[in-house]
């Protein structure tokens, strides 16, 4: 493999490992803030025990997430120095704001929350966790602004052989970035909901602390169901944004080869990239792809034949990742509806509880499939139609990247296993005994 592919693999490994921690942080902290709000409003000790239990899991996940995130940004200097030199004026400013503002706020108030029990008032302590929740999601916003700019570059001029910022307002109002942010946040909050439901299901199956975990699921079920539905609705909107701004990505997502109107959607499809067609096309729904993409059966949907061969993204991984993501979204809605239906006596329905327990890994896989669509579907561009990935890599020998890739895999695997072990250990241990 050449240095470009090795650098892409290294970045993919580090991003995916880091993203084990990010969505749970974003989702769990919101539920944690809701739980503590209930404690402050009611004064019931059971809610305080609930908050401390889920808070311990949140801190474990957050701490390991910080460790994996710090090393991630260094790759822009080590592996992608030409990219950093070309667009650093824009990309660097967004990352700098995230680190110096949102992440700093998040870390400071998390410290207040962790060490503030019995040292600050209940209301101040509650304010701290809400500020952590807000700052965490603001931190994600600035990261998505940076990635959204790579997907749809706006607010720049080409000057002195590089892209320079011309309108910060255009960058932070980028419609692609905002759509991508909402899609990411809804998915992360939903993941947090399913994590809480899954762990609670484990305890309810064993009749551990039934009152506490019954209250927990009654908080998490409507939250998770609402987010599952919002994610599906917003996902449809985001696909329409992709159709408008990145038509070749949409064509790869649907394995759509020929430009036309009244384009059907095939329920059974298999791409044949070598022949530039589908090896299998069966069970068509007439006009559905045109309707889904542009709300009209008569709308033209560009096929992969409308683009130069060297600008077509890898079709099979984009197509399969998109299909997997959509399939998981359907599973989440059905399972959340089942939990809602049995919410009053969920502890008496072991099949639903087992399904909630076993589904814990699936939101992670669904989110990672979504990011696979976003990143592979943008190729061959690192900045869409502005800079190719092959032009962005650092001038380093492939052997150096092999070495760093192996090191990252070893270290990140250890951290990933450690995170799963600690979360599993303390999740099974359960809340502190009632005073």
Tags for this model:
two-stranded antiparallel sheet, 71% helix, two-stranded antiparallel ribbon, 435 residues
Question: Can you describe what's shown?
Answer:
The structure is a single chain. With 435 residues, the chain is mainly alpha-helical. The protein has one domain (3-259, 302-429). The chain is built from 14 helices and 8 strands. The protein has helices spanning 3-18, 22-42, 45-78, 81-115, 122-151, 168-172, 175-205, 210-245, 247-254, 288-294, 315-341, 350-358, 361-376, 398-429, and strands at 156-159, 162-165, 260-261, 265-272, 277-285, 300-301, 381-383, 387-388. Strand 7 and strand 8 (387-388) form a beta hairpin. The relative contact order is 0.14. It is found in: Cell inner membrane. Belongs to the cytochrome ubiquinol oxidase subunit 1 family. Its main location: membrane.
Morphology call = globular
Radius of gyration: 23 Å
Unreliable residue runs = none
**Overall pLDDT confidence:** 88
Find the count of extended strands (DSSP E, 2+ residues).
8
Summed up, the helix count is: 14
- From the N-terminal CA to the C-terminal CA, the straight-line distance is 60 Å
Order of helices and strands: HHHHHEEHHHHEEEHEHHHEEH
State the secondary-structure class. Answer: mainly alpha
Summary, kept brief:
This protein is mainly alpha-helical and 435 residues long. Helices cover 71% and strands 8% of the residues. The strands form four sheets. Strands 1-2 form a two-stranded antiparallel sheet.
């Amino acid at each position: 493999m050449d240095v470009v592919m090795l650098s892409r693999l290294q970045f993919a490994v580090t991003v995916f490992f880091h993203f084990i921690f990010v969505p749970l942080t974003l989702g769990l902290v919101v539920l944690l803030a809701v739980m503590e709000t209930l404690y402050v409003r009611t004064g019931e000790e059971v809610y305080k025990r609930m908050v401390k239990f889920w808070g311990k899991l949140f801190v474990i996940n957050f701490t390991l997430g910080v460790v994996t995130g710090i090393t991630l940004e260094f790759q822009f200097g080590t592996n992608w120095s030409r990219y950093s030199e070309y667009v650093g004026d824009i990309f660097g400013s967004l990352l700098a704001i995230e680190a110096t503002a949102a992440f700093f706020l998040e870390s400071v108030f998390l410290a207040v929350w962790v060490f503030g029990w019995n040292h600050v008032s209940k209301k101040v302590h509650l304010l701290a966790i809400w500020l952590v929740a807000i700052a965490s999601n603001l931190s994600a916003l600035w990261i998505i602004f940076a990635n959204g700019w790579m997907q749809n570059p706006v607010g720049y001029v080409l000057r002195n052989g590089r892209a320079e910022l011309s309108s910060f307002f255009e960058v932070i109002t980028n419609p692609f970035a905002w759509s991508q942010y909402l899609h990411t946040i809804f998915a992360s909050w939903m993941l947090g909901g399913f994590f809480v439901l899954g762990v609670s299901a484990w305890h309810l199956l064993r009749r551990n602390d039934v009152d506490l975990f019954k209250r927990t699921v009654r908080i998490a079920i409507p939250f998770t169901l609402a987010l599952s539905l919002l994610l599906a609705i917003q996902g449809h909107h985001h696909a329409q944004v992709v159709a408008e701004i990145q038509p070749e990505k949409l064509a790869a997502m649907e394995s759509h080869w020929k430009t036309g109107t009244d384009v059907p959607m095939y329920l059974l499809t298999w791409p044949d990239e070598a022949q530039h067609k589908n090896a299998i096309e069966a069970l068509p729904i007439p006009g559905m792809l045109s309707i889904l993409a542009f709300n009209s059966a008569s709308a033209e949907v560009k096929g992969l034949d409308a683009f130069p061969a060297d600008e077509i993204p890898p079709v099979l991984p984009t197509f399969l990742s998109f299909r997997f993501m959509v399939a998981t979204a359907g599973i989440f809605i059905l399972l959340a509806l089942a939990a809602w239906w049995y919410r009053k006596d969920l502890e008496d329905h072991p099949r639903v509880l087992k399904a909630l327990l076993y589904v814990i890994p699936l939101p992670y896989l669904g989110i990672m499939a979504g990011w696979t669509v976003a990143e592979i579907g943008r190729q061959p561009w690192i900045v869409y139609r502005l800079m190719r990935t092959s032009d962005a890599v650092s001038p380093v020998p492939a052997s150096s990247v092999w070495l760093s890739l192996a090191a990252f895999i070893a270290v990140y695997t250890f951290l990933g296993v450690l995170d799963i072990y600690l979360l599993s250990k303390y999740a099974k241990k359960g809340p502190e005994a009632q005073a």
